[in-house]
Amino acid sequence: MIHRNQLRTRTNEDTISNLNASYDQGDLEEARFDEIMDFLTGDFHPAFWPVFSPHRYTISKKSEELKAVMEAAYGRIDIAMTHLDRLIGNSNHVYHEKRTIADAYAYVMSLWSLKTPKPYDQYPNVARFMKSMSEDSVVQAVIQKSR
Questions:
Q1: Helix/strand/coil for 15
Q2: CA angle (131 as vertex; 127, 136 as ends), nearest 5
């Protein structure tokens, strides 16, 4: 049992040093990948919900009000697409320079942007990523099987 008088106060530098020592590069990379997947599943994907299910955001059945719900989503989608564009950067992948599930997820959701006034080809890094993905033989095979 630790008594109050045995507790040692740490400085910020001690704390930072101990935090850095407790995480290896693998932990940091895993956290970065998790952060990207959190964005894709928690921000990017939900941004499209009003486009596909506007009736969930209003009690109105009027087509002009359902359309207004969809249009209200376009700003949030633009923010998410802009963030994705930055994540991709000069790469052809969402996470580092390697193919991951994040690429597949981002590819499908970026296709959804074709239903908005600002589709993926308006984001240069996303456009390059989408071209690379659509030319990939595995992606082509999956698309063919899903038809």
A1: helix
A2: 150
Is the pTM of the predicted complex or chain greater than 0.85? no
- Structure-token match 């994040």, residue found: 102
In 3D space, the residue among 77, 73, 76, 78 whose CA is nearest the CA of residue 50 turns out to be 73
Give per-residue pLDDT as tens, 26-72.
Answer: 888 899 999 999 999 999 999 999 999 999 999 999 999 999 999 99
Q: Nearest Cα to 51, choosing from 67, 40, 64?
A: 67
Q: Say what the alpha-carbon torsion angle 38, 102, 21, 8 is, to the nearest 10 degrees.
A: 10
Residues across the chain: 147
User: What's the half-sphere exposure (Cβ side, CA atoms, 13 Å) at 116?
Assistant: 29
Distance (Å, rounded) from C-alpha 108 to C-alpha 126? Answer: 12
Measured between alpha carbons, how far is residue 110 from residues 58, 78, 87, 91 in Å?
25, 11, 13, 16
> How many C-beta neighbours within 10 Å does residue 119 have?
17
- Residue 76: count other Cβ atoms within 10 Å of its Cβ: 17
Instruction: Take residue 142 and report the two structure tokens written for it.
Output: 């999956």
The rounded distance, in Å, linking the Cα atoms of 68 and 37 is 29
